[in-house]
Design goal:
The chain is of the alpha/beta class. The protein has helices at 8-19, 43-61, 73-81, 92-100, 146-159, 171-179, 190-195, 198-201, 226-237, 243-250, 266-269; strands spanning 25-26, 31-37, 64-68, 87-90, 105-110, 114-115, 117-122, 137-140, 164-167, 185-189, 204-209, 213-214, 217-220, 257-259. It folds into two domains: 8-113 and 214-269, Periplasmic binding protein-like II (D-Maltodextrin-Binding Protein, domain 2, 3-Layer(aba) Sandwich), CATH 3.40.190.10; 117-211, Periplasmic binding protein-like II (D-Maltodextrin-Binding Protein, domain 2, 3-Layer(aba) Sandwich).
Length: 274
């Protein structure tokens, strides 16, 4: 794997500067950077997918970068608001909010990718239109989930008035609850639906697919020194330069990463979501 390591002198300077910055975990001989991932799925599944990435980033940059998540999306939002994570992978709406305060800065995103919300229904219910969901009980991951909740609900509000929304903490929980018949339908995204076990997928149908918007952001807290920020950004973008890195990224359900800037999410800002 292509490695971009800072020189010994620069690394020492960066580490000395980092010692004075809030938010860095500290052990006897290393500086630990936290990498928070939005909990769209069970924490065990996220760890299997993301720990290989944070391990590779640590090897490429020379800094210790540790995977973290949260027990629910609302708790993840709280931790973002408090600036708990040094680096974070967050949904598009989260980025527009936490870019303003506490000031997370975009460094990368999935290459040539847009995110689409979906509404799934049980294969047994024979529901054929959004209008048939009026007055029904619907499941969503969390109030602030961008595509799975905010976008899907915006269209449901118009097409299926009177539905009831229940929040069940993760995309996987939505899919399982709908498959069991506990809800008439639920919100999710294409990637997380593709990642559930085939038997569960076969019990669901995609009733509706939203327009596309700029996808999730890899972002960094403003307290992180620029040299560390640039090193992690380069490592992410170069992750697919060899087969080992391509495998890590494919296991995330992605293909490759590209450099990002804050204005990439202006399409999401234009929605005026509050």
């Amino acid at each position: 794997m292509l490695v971009r390591r800072v020189t010994s002198t620069l690394a020492i300077v960066v580490l000395l500067f980092a010692c004075s910055q809030p938010g860095f975990s500290q052990t006897s001989d290393t500086r630990v950077l936290t990498f928070g991932v939005v909990p769209q799925q069970a924490s065990e599944k996220l760890a299997r997918q993301w720990v290989p990435l944070t391990t590779a980033l640590s090897e490429q940059t020379g800094f210790t970068i540790e995977f973290e998540t949260a027990p629910s999306i609302p708790e993840f939002e709280k931790r973002l608001a408090d600036g708990v994570y040094d680096f974070a992978y967050m949904n598009p709406y989260h980025f527009t909010v936490f870019n303003e305060d506490p000031g997370y800065v975009a460094i990368a995103r999935q290459r040539d990718h847009v995110i689409r919300g979906i509404i799934v229904v049980s294969s047994d219910l024979e529901i054929e239109s959004l209008e048939e969901l009026a007055g029904k009980n619907m499941a969503f991951p969390a109030p602030g989930s961008f595509a799975a909740t905010l976008i899907t609900r915006a269209f449901l509000d118009e097409a299926a008035p009177g539905y009831t929304a229940t929040f069940v903490n993760s995309h996987d929980s939505v899919y399982r609850a709908v498959a069991k018949g506990l809800f008439a339908g639920g919100g999710g995204i294409v990637r997380t639906l593709r990642e559930i076990e085939p038997d569960l997928q076969n019990q669901l149908e995609v009733l509706w697919l939203s327009p596309g918007y700029t996808g999730h952001a890899f972002a960094v807290h403003p307290r992180v020194p620029e040299a560390i920020r640039d090193s992690v950004q380069s490592a992410l973008i170069e992750m697919t330069s060899d087969e080992e890195g391509r495998t890590i990224v494919r296991n995330l359900g992605m293909q490759s990463f590209q450099e990002a800037v804050d204005s990439d999410w202006d399409d999401v800002r234009s929605l005026g979501i509050k």
